Q: What sequence folds into this?
């Protein structure tokens, strides 16, 4: 018995072995560049027998002898089919080169709580690949989105290291509530508070600074209601989904990249030198009837006698300090990224570490970021998969004073050119005592930009960790359950050391530590069921629930008589009891949501989607807590219709439309409560305690809602060689939240109310054209968008009820949000040299009256967009990105001092075009030291006129990059998969008529309302950065 | 092993799933209250809470009448020289305030803050437990007294005076009789005065005779007298003033200093208190003191020294010191903290004296009051008014003493305006009493109410 069994087994084995060696198809699958395609599918459709290509693109498929049709597939490429006949014992070699597919249309796009094939998307979504973000170094990653998506206006703050951008998706639809889109990283709406440190040092907090651009796989921007509807609450201003890299393919791949670069200012201010300034000031003095030399701030005073003034004037003549030059220098940037991607049957892993040190062109200013990420996927068994995304980063921002706070801002304002940086000899008082020693810093207004930069120690450290664990369960076929828990932790510490030398009152300095930490938890559970009823009818159902809570804590420490900041002097951190401590009370908010989505595809041609979401927010009272946000949308893939079959030129045509309601609740957490002071507020009158009301309750405070219509055509021509998309939208936002400045006669100052209505409507157009596709390739990507914004209604309030901080902007019914409200300037009278203004009736007058302020333009552009031209020839490639903005105006608020009355500010050289004698036709009036000559009230030389509202249209060469990929032939020898060298320059040049520093500006804001109402206002805001970078990236 | 592991994993997943859906089903998770303040509903519960809220009204008054309001009114008159080192004061002095002038905006805002606090208390008595009817009435009377006092002060500074138009239909100030955020337009001066008198009548009827340092019946009577006096209702003014004078509760200070440290002046009918730890007189102290400051912000106009100096035996000459071209004020020297009378007996006596003069009635009483005050200033029996003086002479004497006695107190300008409405050709430093700039400009924030009409500006220089 046994021997027979053994023999049979042996025979079978031999047969098998024989068969195994018998017949197979093998070969290599590559793309059109000759690069291998690992993980491609080689399959015999009839038998469903197939294999994947290996890491090197090779495959071997064993088959019985016969005739087969074999298909070669890979996502993003056209499937190829080959017919072969296999004889016994034959091994055929079939190498296949796959052509790239119309990437635009079969792409997979991340939508809320899932992914969709692009062709089936009925909403308006723009996708930007992670590679494009890495191609351009920016202070913070979101600035690289500029010009990439129609309808998304990205304005970078400034060249200050770590500064953030202002992003507006289809215009601004909020006034006092936050108007920024919702940022979601791997499914977690992250903490995005721009005002954690208010505008300390003229810089707002940037919550995206610590996100490592190298980790990003793709960014999807959801623009209309059907796309954002699933994020209902908070989707009213758009949603930006950030997806990080994962280890999806088989095998192990190592990636390393480095970049070094230099940053310079894109432009520099044109301040006067000593000779010019003294001459102008003397002229102003004489115009006012003064005799002798004019008095000079910090050198002499108005009441000094002529001799003292003359001595001071002589002394000043001998000093010429270029303060701008002393605050600006080329900065050095370096960036290193190392990542590992591993994939196998059951797991995928992406692990990366990065170091980025970005010094800006401001001396002493840099943003250093160290970050690490692990994204792991593990398939536990056939019905459960776990996905973990975790990141940790530390961002260290070495800050310097900018804008109104000092530094370059002081160089543009109060730092007069005749001030020396240090005393070059001892300065004595009348009795011969030394009051200032040689070498001591010369201080004005208690500071000096060079002294401040060298003595003041200032650093902001942000520790950030964004993590998410998701379990994906597929208990039965077509049903997917996702359970997800996320945690976003932020710990921000700002340390400021004020040295004694600058305080003039003590030898030792003082230091502050301002600390915030925010814990943000997010839980969600969704169930997704795919029901293919028949070939023609396909349904996809999604239901889910989500809860998010955020707790913010903070404390402040103040130490007196110290020699350095907390992070340099260890003894301080150890002895916190020596500090004056203030504990800020925690602030909490939460959202609770239930949502559902149905997708129905009919005959693969007609696509319908409906979503509904109910959101409750802790910020509203019981009566108004929950908002209901539904949306419906439909798409018709016309190119699938039979009547389109004959029209070869049109390879793809789709029409889609949507309508939905989204909401916004981004207001302070406790705005609805009526509040009183604490019992122990410490105030006594007549020895007795008091208690007093602080905030008036508004129990009717409720969601801000936007109703959006959207319609679009997507078309591909000539086999998708040209693809374009044309979209139009109409968005009406109502119950817009206003933090109204109530009249002082109410007894308090502000009140949150749902009052306003804002309209945004516009058109977006994007076209991608592969102009040349031969050996020399040229692709153009162009997008343009026009948004019309109008404040429709503000209830019974007048424009003065809502104002944009210190920025002379107002809400004006019938005009855009972000309108400048200033006195209209007429001209300079040729005979008298005095400025002439217009009153409200259009009559000319010499009187400057704040009551004559009116709408004089706004900061919103008529058109924005970008043009990217990419070229490639053999192993070289070049990409040129130009961004443009047309029709916006900028109000240069600091011009009112730089080009107005001669005061203790330095002035810009445009002032040289001023009136000097009767008959002169000049831009600026006759110079004076007395503001009343310009009709301004005594003591207030703030010249709020539209003389300083300029056209800020520009087109900018944002990025030009040239790269060389070392050919496969060479790198294969060293086992490299890819090796690329690239060189790029950002902000190389700008075409604009704007006379100021930079037509692209986002200044520091005081709060969310200021941020919405005052776009395009600049006040000593530093220019953008121009950087030259050289990078090497490789993968093994 | 593996099976157990799977079971464990599936169990934990199932638990998580259930937990997820349960957790996400609770509305309680959406209730958060701020930590550093008290929710309104919790703030007013006991009688103590109510008293504290009431005390907060006085706290605001103390921050206003520490010299701040008095200086503002004084700057409009001819008593002061042009201020030194203070642009905002200069704006008021020049009668060129605009809606950005933060000094006057601050005063306006603070007065309405006191009014708001009072209204909150009035509307929430029912929330408070353990409050007896008499206590509640007393509190209501105090609140309404303060509310009237505030409206009275604001309408005098921010609008043209009573009598500027025949039926006082000219614009006054917004009346706030409730706590709300609603923007309101300006009421007419007639309406404002009616409202003030209604509140004062209630206060007069319901305030106790004594109430510590807080408002009492005499305080109400005194303010009613002031109101009637400005309305030229001289009989009523005289009567109410007489009630306070004859109550016996107040006597004239023996020396000329009614700003006492630690004790309340005997002639203070209503005032604010300071103590070393809680100083409420900085408006006077920091602007007038000349002993520790070579160039004080506020000094007298030269005219004051000239008028007072005409009679060297007037002890009120000790209130100032000529220093070169400056007339420095010395009456606040060498004092750090002191109580400030907002309404005092001297003023009431002079009001009654002038009211009696206007009625040509009981002139002997009027002369008696004037002589009491002159005796204090010159010494007993010196410079007394003749017992046979005519009504005109009585009025003139009362006005002269009023002018001298209320120096620094900001009371003169109202009387000058009143006399203007009575037909006298009054100018204040060459500006007519009713030029537009004499009414301070409202804060910019008031225009957030549609239809709010701002004052005209300028026209005074």
A:
């Amino acid at each position: 018995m046994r021997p027979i069994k053994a023999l049979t087994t042996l025979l079978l084995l031999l047969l098998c072995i024989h068969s195994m060696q018998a017949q197979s198809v093998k070969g290599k699958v590559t793309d059109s560049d000759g690069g291998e395609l690992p993980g491609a599918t080689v399959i015999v459709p009839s038998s469903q027998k197939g294999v994947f290509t290996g890491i090197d693109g090779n495959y071997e498929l064993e088959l019985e002898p016969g005739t087969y049709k074999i298909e070669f597939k890979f996502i993003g490429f056209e499937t190829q089919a080959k017919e072969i006949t296999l004889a016994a014992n034959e091994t055929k070699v079939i190498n296949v080169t796959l052509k790239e597919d119309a990437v635009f249309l079969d792409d997979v796009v991340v939508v809320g709580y899932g992914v969709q094939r692009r062709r089936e998307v009925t909403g308006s979504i723009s996708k930007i690949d992670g590679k494009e973000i890495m191609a351009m170094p920016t202070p913070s990653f979101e600035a690289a989105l500029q010009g990439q998506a129609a309808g998304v206006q990205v304005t970078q703050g400034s060249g200050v290291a770590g500064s953030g951008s202002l992003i507006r998706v289809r215009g601004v639809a909020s006034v006092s509530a936050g108007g920024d889109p919702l940022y979601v990283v791997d499914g977690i709406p992250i903490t995005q508070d721009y005002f954690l440190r208010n505008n300390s040092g003229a810089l707002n907090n940037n919550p995206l600074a610590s996100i490592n651009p190298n980790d990003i796989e793709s960014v999807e921007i959801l623009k209309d209601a059907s796309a954002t509807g699933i994020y209902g609450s908070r989707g009213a201003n758009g949603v930006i989904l950030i997806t990080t890299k994962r280890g999806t393919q088989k095998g192990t791949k190592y990636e390393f990249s480095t970049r070094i670069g230099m940053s310079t200012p894109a432009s520099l201010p044109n301040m006067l030198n000593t000779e010019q300034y003294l001459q102008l000031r003397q002229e102003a003095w004489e115009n006012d009837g003064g005799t002798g030399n004019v008095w000079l701030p910090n050198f002499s005073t108005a009441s000094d006698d002529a001799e003292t003034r003359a001595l001071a004037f002589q002394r000043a003549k001998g000093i010429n300090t270029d303060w701008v030059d002393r605050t600006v220098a080329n900065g050095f940037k370096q960036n290193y990224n190392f990542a590992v991607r591993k994939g196998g049957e059951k797991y995928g892993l992406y692990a990366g570490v990065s170091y980025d040190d970005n010094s800006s062109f401001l001396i002493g200013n840099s943003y250093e970021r160290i970050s690490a990420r692990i994204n792991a996927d593990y398939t536990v068994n056939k019905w459960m998969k776990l996905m973990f995304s975790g990141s940790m980063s530390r961002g260290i921002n070495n800050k310097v004073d900018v804008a109104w706070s000092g530094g370059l801002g002081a160089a543009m304002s109060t730092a007069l050119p005749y001030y020396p940086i240090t005393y070059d000899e001892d300065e004595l008082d009348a009795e011969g005592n030394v009051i200032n020693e040689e070498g001591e810093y010369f201080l004005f207004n208690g500071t000096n930009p060079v002294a401040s930069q060298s003595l003041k120690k200032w650093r902001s450290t942000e520790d950030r960790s964004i993590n998410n664990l998701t379990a994906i369960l597929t208990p039965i076929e077509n049903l997917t359950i996702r359970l997800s828990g996320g945690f976003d932790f932020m710990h921000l510490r700002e340390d400021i050391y004020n040295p004694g030398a600058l305080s003039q009152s003590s030898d030792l300095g003082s230091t502050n530590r301002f600390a915030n930490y925010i814990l943000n938890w997010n839980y969600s559970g969704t169930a997704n069921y795919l029901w293919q009823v028949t070939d023609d009818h396909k349904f996809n159902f999604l239901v889910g629930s989500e809860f998010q809570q955020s707790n913010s804590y903070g404390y402040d420490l103040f130490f007196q008589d110290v020699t350095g900041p907390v992070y340099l002097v260890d003894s301080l951190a150890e002895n916190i009891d020596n500090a004056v401590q203030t504990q800020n009370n925690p602030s909490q908010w939460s959202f609770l949501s239930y949502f559902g989505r149905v997708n129905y595809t009919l005959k693969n041609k007609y696509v319908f989607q409906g979503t509904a979401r109910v959101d409750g927010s802790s910020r509203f009272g019981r009566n108004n807590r929950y908002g209901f946000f539904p949306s419906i949308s439909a798409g018709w893939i016309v190119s699938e219709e039979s009547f389109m079959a004959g029209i070869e030129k049109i390879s793809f045509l789709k029409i889609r439309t949507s309508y939905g309601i989204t909401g916004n609740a981004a207001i302070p957490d406790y705005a609805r409560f009526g509040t009183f002071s604490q019992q122990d507020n410490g105030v006594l009158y007549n020895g007795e305690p008091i208690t007093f009301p602080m905030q008036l309750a508004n129990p009717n405070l409720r969601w801000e809602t936007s109703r959006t219509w959207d319609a679009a055509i997507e078309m591909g021509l000539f086999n998708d060689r040209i693809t374009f998309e044309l979209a139009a939208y109409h968005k009406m936002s109502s119950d817009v939240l206003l933090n109204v400045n109530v009249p002082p006669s109410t007894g308090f100052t502000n009140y949150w109310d749902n009052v306003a209505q804002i309209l945004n409507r516009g058109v977006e157009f994007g076209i991608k054209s592969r102009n040349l596709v031969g050996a020399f390739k040229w692709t153009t990507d162009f997008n343009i968008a026009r948004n019309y914004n109008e404040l429709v209604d503000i209830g019974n309030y007048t424009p003065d009820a809502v104002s944009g901080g210190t920025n002379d902007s107002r809400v004006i019914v019938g005009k855009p949000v972000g309108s400048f409200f200033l006195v209209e300037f007429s001209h300079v009278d040729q005979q008298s040299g005095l400025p002439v203004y217009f009153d409200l009736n259009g009559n000319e007058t010499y009187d400057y009256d704040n009551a004559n302020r009116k709408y004089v333009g706004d900061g919103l552009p008529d058109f924005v967009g970008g043009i990217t031209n990419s070229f490639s020839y053999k192993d070289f490639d070049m990409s040129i990105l130009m961004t443009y903005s047309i029709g916006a105006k900028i109000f240069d608020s600091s011009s009112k001092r730089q080009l107005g009355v001669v005061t203790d500010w330095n002035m810009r050289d445009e002032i040289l075009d001023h009136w000097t004698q009767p008959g002169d036709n000049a831009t600026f009036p006759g110079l004076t030291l007395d503001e009343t000559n310009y009709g301004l009230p005594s003591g207030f030389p703030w010249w709020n006129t539209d003389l300083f509202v300029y056209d800020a249209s520009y087109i900018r060469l944002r990025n030009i990059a040239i790269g060389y990929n070392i050919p496969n032939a060479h790198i294969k020898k060293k086992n490299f998969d890819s090796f690329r060298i690239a060189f790029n320059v950002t902000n190389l040049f700008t075409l604009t008529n704007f006379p100021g520093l930079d037509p692209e500006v986002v200044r520091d804001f005081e709060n969310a309302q200021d941020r919405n109402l005052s776009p395009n206002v600049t006040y000593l805001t530093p220019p953008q950065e121009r950087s030259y970078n050289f990078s090497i990236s490789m993968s093994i | 092993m593996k099976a157990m592991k799977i079971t464990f994993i599936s169990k934990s997943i199932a638990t998580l799933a259930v937990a997820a859906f349960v957790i996400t089903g609770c509305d309680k998770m959406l209730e958060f209250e701020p930590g550093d303040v008290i929710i309104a509903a919790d703030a007013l519960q006991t009688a103590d809470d109510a008293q504290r809220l009431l005390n907060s009204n006085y706290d605001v008054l103390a921050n206003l009448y520490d010299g701040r309001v008095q200086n503002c009114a004084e700057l409009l008159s001819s008593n002061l020289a042009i201020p030194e080192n203070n642009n905002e004061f200069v704006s008021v002095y020049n009668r060129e305030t605009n809606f950005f002038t933060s000094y006057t905006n601050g005063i306006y805002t603070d007065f309405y803050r006191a009014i708001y606090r009072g209204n909150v208390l009035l509307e929430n008595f029912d929330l408070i437990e353990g409050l007896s009817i008499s206590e509640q009435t007393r509190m209501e009377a105090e609140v309404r007294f303060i509310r009237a006092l505030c409206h009275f002060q604001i309408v005098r500074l921010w609008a043209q005076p009573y009598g500027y138009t025949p039926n006082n239909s000219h614009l006054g100030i917004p009346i706030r009789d409730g706590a709300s955020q609603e923007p309101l337009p300006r009421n007419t001066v007639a309406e404002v005065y009616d409202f003030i008198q209604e509140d004062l009548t209630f206060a007069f009827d319901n305030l106790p005779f004594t109430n510590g340092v807080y408002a009492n019946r005499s305080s109400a009577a005194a303010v009613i007298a002031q109101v009637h006096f400005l309305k030229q209702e001289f009989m009523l003014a005289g009567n109410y003033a007489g009630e306070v004078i004859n109550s016996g509760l107040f006597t004239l200070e023996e020396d000329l200093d009614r700003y006492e440290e630690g004790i309340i002046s005997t002639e203070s009918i209503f005032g604010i208190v300071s103590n070393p730890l809680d100083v409420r007189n900085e408006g006077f102290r920091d602007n007038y003191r000349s002993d520790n400051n070579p160039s004080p912000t506020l000094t007298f106009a030269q005219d004051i020294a000239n008028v007072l100096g005409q009679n060297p035996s007037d002890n009120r000459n000790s209130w100032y010191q000529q220093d070169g071209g400056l007339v420095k004020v010395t009456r606040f020297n060498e004092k750090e903290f002191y109580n400030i009378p907002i309404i005092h007996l001297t003023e009431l006596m002079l009001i009654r004296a002038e009211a009696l003069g206007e009625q040509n009635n009981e002139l002997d009483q009027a002369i008696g009051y004037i002589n009491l005050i002159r005796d204090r200033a010159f010494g007993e029996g010196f410079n007394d008014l003749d017992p046979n003086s005519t009504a005109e002479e009585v009025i003139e004497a009362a006005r002269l003493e009023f002018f001298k006695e209320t120096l620094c107190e900001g009371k003169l300008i109202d009387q000058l305006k009143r006399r203007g409405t009575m037909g006298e050709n009054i100018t204040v430093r060459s500006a007519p009493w009713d030029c537009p700039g004499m009414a301070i400009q409202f804060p910019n924030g008031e225009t957030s109410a549609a239809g709010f009409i701002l004052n005209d500006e300028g026209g005074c220089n």
User: Anything to note?
Assistant: Residues 15-20 of chain A have pLDDT under 50 and may be disordered. DSSP finds 14 helices and 55 strands in chain A. Chain A touches chain B through 76 residues (CB under 8 Å). The CA atoms of residues 345 and 973 of chain A lie 28 Å apart.
